Structures are given as C-alpha cells and as structure tokens.
C-alpha cells in the first residue's frame, strides 16, 4: 500500500483481517487521502477496528462497507463522532448487532452528501427506522435498505411512510425504502415517495 499513493478502492472483504492487520494498514495510511471505497466486510474486527480507523484522515471516502464485522452501537458511536467523513455517500452496517439505539446514534452523522444506508440483520426494528427518519440530517438520503426483526409488522409501514413524507424533497428526488419482510410471502416491498 505504501506504493499506491493514489489508491481509490480497497477491497479487503473475506480476508480474515484482524485488528493487528487493520492496524498495520492504517499505519501506512498515506493512501487514505485518496481512497473513495473501503470494503472491510466479513472480517472479525469488532468495535476496536472502528477506533483504529479514526487515526488517518478520509477526506474523499464515499463508500464504507462494514457488513458482518462484529461492530455494535459503540462502533457506530466512534464512526459518527470520531471519524471525519465529509464525502461519505454509502454505508453498509448489515449483519452487526446495532439495535435501535445504534441507529439513533447513526442519525447524528455529519455527512452532508450521504445518500444510501444498508442495514440488513442488525436487530434494528421498524421503531428504530421511524426514529431515524424523524431525526437524520442527510438532505440527499434517497435509499434505505433494511430488514426488520419483529413480527408482525402491524402498523409500522404507515408509520414509516408518515416519517418519510415531511422530508424536504427536490423535484427530482426519490426516497426508496427496501423492507425485507421475511414472514410474508413477498420477501421485499419497495416503498417509493417521489417529489412533486
């Protein structure tokens, strides 16, 4: 990596990456200033890995994949409060035990260009999603991919729709929520609200 100062994409998924390994990578972080896509998914990292990621600067990072990396809401807290990600557009935190409290923390992220959030299998319920939609500060958010961990859904879809409606939409903007309802025959329902 020392020989790649203009590196824009780094895919380390399924590499058995450890905390020691990610520490070594971060110590050679001259390339981090140009990186736009970082994929750490499917590695046994934990919240400590997020703390390690706070060391370099990520001024151009647009996509961060933390799927199945054993992070919890503590990792989310570090991500939100300790890492400067001014160009972040897409985040995947799927298959981690985030829970509703972690999603509430995530809504505080200062990411003005943020567009796309993925959180399948995170122990986050529809109540957490409603809280996110009522409190986030991402004017460009248009895609939400999630799965619920509660059954039945009851009135959650109307609640989510009501939470989506007050958003300040541009004429071209569209908000899409992908709901994975595993207890129904249809695996996914796409909810789309378009600007006038």
Walk me through this protein's architecture.
This protein has 196 residues and is an alpha/beta fold. Helices cover 27% and strands 18% of the residues. It has an eight-stranded mixed β-sheet, with no helix packed on it. Strand 7 and strand 8 (188-194) form a beta hairpin. The chain is globular. 31% of the residues are buried. The model is unreliable at 151-155, 169-173 and 180-196 (pLDDT under 50).
- What percent of residues are in strands? 15-25%
Low-confidence stretches: 151-155, 169-173, 180-196
So what's the oligomer here?
single chain
Helix content: 25-40%
Q: For the record, give the distance between the C-alpha atoms at the N and C termini, rounded to a whole number.
A: 47 Å
User: Which H/E pattern describes the elements?
Assistant: EHEHEHEHEHEHEE
Please describe the structure with a list of short key phrases separated by commas or semicolons.
about 200 residues, alpha/beta, eight-stranded mixed sheet, disordered C terminus
Q: What's the quick description here?
A:
The chain is α/β, with parallel strands linked by helices. The protein has 6 helices and 8 strands, in the order E-H-E-H-E-H-E-H-E-H-E-H-E-E.
Task: Summarize the SSE layout with pairings.
Layout: E1 9-11, H1 19-27, E2 37-39, H2 47-52, E3 63-65, H3 73-82, E4 90-92, H4 99-106, E5 116-119, H5 126-135, E6 143-147, H6 156-164, E7 174-180, E8 188-194
Parallel strand pairs: 1-2, 2-3, 3-4, 4-5, 5-6, 6-7
Antiparallel strand pairs: 7-8
Helix pairs in contact: 3-4, 4-5, 5-6
């Amino acid at each position: 990596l020392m020989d790649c100062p203009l590196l824009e994409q780094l895919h380390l998924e399924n590499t058995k990456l450890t905390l020691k390994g990610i520490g070594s990578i971060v110590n050679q972080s001259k390339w981090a200033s140009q990186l736009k896509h970082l994929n750490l998914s499917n590695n046994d990292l934990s919240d400590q890995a997020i703390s390690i990621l706070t060391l370099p600067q990520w001024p151009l990072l647009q996509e961060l994949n933390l799927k199945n990396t054993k992070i919890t809401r503590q990792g989310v807290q570090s991500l939100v409060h300790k890492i400067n990600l001014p160009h972040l557009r897409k985040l995947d935190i799927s298959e981690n035990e985030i829970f509703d409290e972690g999603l509430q923390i995530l809504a505080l992220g200062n990411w003005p260009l943020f567009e796309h959030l993925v959180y399948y299998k995170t122990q986050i319920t529809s109540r957490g999603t409603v809280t996110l939609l009522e409190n986030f500060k991402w004017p460009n958010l248009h895609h939400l991919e999630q799965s619920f961990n509660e059954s039945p859904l009851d009135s959650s879809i109307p609640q989510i729709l009501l939470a989506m409606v007050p958003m300040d939409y541009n004429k071209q903007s569209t908000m899409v929520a992908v709901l994975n309802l595993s207890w129904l025959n249809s695996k996914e329902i796409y909810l789309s609200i378009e600007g006038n």
